[in-house]
Amino acid sequence: MHIVFVEPEIPPNTGTTARLCAATNTSFHLVGPLGFSLADRYLKRAGLDYWPYVDVHYYHNWEDFLARRPPGRLLAFSARATISYTRVRYREDDLLIFGSETRGLSDEIRTALADSLYTIPMPGRHVRSLNLANAAAIVLYEALRQLGKV
Q1: Is the previous residue joined to 11 through a cis bond, with omega within 30 degrees of 0?
Q2: Which residues constitute the domain of residue 72?
Q3: Is the predicted pLDDT of residue 42 greater than 90, yes or no?
Q4: What average pLDDT does range 118-139 have in this prediction?
Q5: Domain count, the chain
Q6: Distance between CA 104 and CA 111 in Å, rounded?
Q7: Which residues pair with 4 in a beta bridge?
Q8: How many Å apart are CA 31 and CA 63, to the nearest integer?
Q9: DSSP structural state of residue 2
Q10: CA distance readout (Å), 125 to 64, 80, 128, 130, 137
């Protein structure tokens, strides 16, 4: 299983997700440009001392990611999608793709992955989207649950 963040902007979300990846033996892919330095103290603090246990990969941009990514299905998650993440039958080599905190996934990526674009339903009317780290955790744990890993 792989979590992919495309152009993340807020260091604590990336650090928190790194900790999640260490806890679940999940590979973490960061697609630039990043909105922070990888040396950022908030990034490191959120990931605590778990960074050495994270299988992390860096890519300059989306095209670089597509050229070097591991095999597996690309599953994208967006507040603008209509099909629930619970409708997916996850596989062990899936790449779970999430966009930046303020912009989400670009129109280009959402269009390219339209057949594999999912959302986390939010019944509340006053929230535009969930926190990036929370969204990744929700989807990852559903995938791991389906695969009998948790």
Answers
A1: no
A2: 2-146
A3: no
A4: 95
A5: 1
A6: 13
A7: 29, 97
A8: 9
A9: E
A10: 37, 14, 8, 12, 22
CATH code, domain with 58: 3.40.1280.10
Spatial CA neighbour of 24 closest among 137, 146, 135: 137
Which residue in this structure is represented by tokens 């930046």?
100
List the structure tokens of 43: 């990034």
Which pLDDT belongs to residue 41?
Answer: 73
* 3-class SS of residue 6: strand
pLDDT for the residue 140: 98
- CB atoms closer than 10 angstroms to residue 49: 9
Q: How many residues does the chain have?
A: 150
Q: Which amino acid is at 70?
A: P
Global confidence as pTM: 0.95
Residue 74 in contact with residue 105, Cβ under 8 Å? no
Find out whether 55 and 30 touch, Cβ atoms under 8 Å.
no
Instruction: Tell me how far apart the alpha carbons of residues 67 and 15 are, in angstroms, rounded to a whole number.
Output: 25
DSSP string, 72-134: S-EEEE-TT--SBGGG----TT-EEEE-BTTTBS-HHHHHHTGGGEEB-----SS-S---HHH
